[in-house]
């Protein structure tokens, strides 16, 4: 009976690890950039010329055709698993930051026809007051959009299909790569008449697969030890 219970536990644990591995096709996109209007007045009362952050998405997410106008665009709902960002002042101190985890937003991949733009974008990334720090008065939410695009005039063609990639070369995107941060505020919030939309031109982008979580590796190691013990007892 004890051997049967042990074997069942091992089988369940192996299934857990297998499931973790199967769902671990996560990709992290890191970015840095500069504000396209660094001196404009804004709701923070000080310049926020720099941004850095990341987006983690699940490449195994199922996509649906979004448009077939001059190319193919697929949308991957809830593909985003985590987003984090910081807006910096001129001294690189953090003015506004946030992190959100879960399954949310959407990723889009566009395979442009001919020399039209190929792009990948991460949309509908909304963070509430509980997920940010340094929010301005009247803050309701922050909405982030990250977009990498080819120029449309170069021979580069990152996408030969519209599958959400398990990794990609960011250097292939020689067009306008941007992060947009829009801050929604309650009506009548002070100060009024200042910018709540920030556009950052990205100067550095890197892409890396996210490794299997350390906990899963520990579980695999433990399983290996238990299997060895079971064999010795036999």
Describe the protein:
The chain is of the alpha+beta class. It has one domain (25-213). It is built from 2 helices and 10 strands. The protein has helices spanning 2-22, 214-233; strands at 26-35, 50-58, 64-67, 71-88, 94-112, 119-128, 132-133, 139-149, 178-185, 197-209. Strands 1-2-4-5-6-8-9-10 form an 8-stranded antiparallel barrel. Residues 2-23 and 221-234 have low confidence and may be disordered.
Summarize the structure.
This protein has 234 residues and is an alpha+beta fold. The protein is built from two helices and ten strands; from the N terminus they run αββββββββββα. An eight-stranded antiparallel β-barrel has the order 1-2-4-5-6-8-9-10.
Cα-atom radius of gyration: 22 Å
Number of strands: 10
Helix coverage percent: 10-25%
Would you identify the regions where 5 or more consecutive residues have pLDDT less than 50?
2-23, 221-234
- Describe the sheet with the most strands: 8 strands, antiparallel, barrel
How many helices? The count is: 2
Structural class: alpha+beta
Query: Secondary-structure element order, as H and E?
Result: HEEEEEEEEEEH
Determine the strand fraction and express it as a percent band: 35-45%
N-to-C span: 15 Å
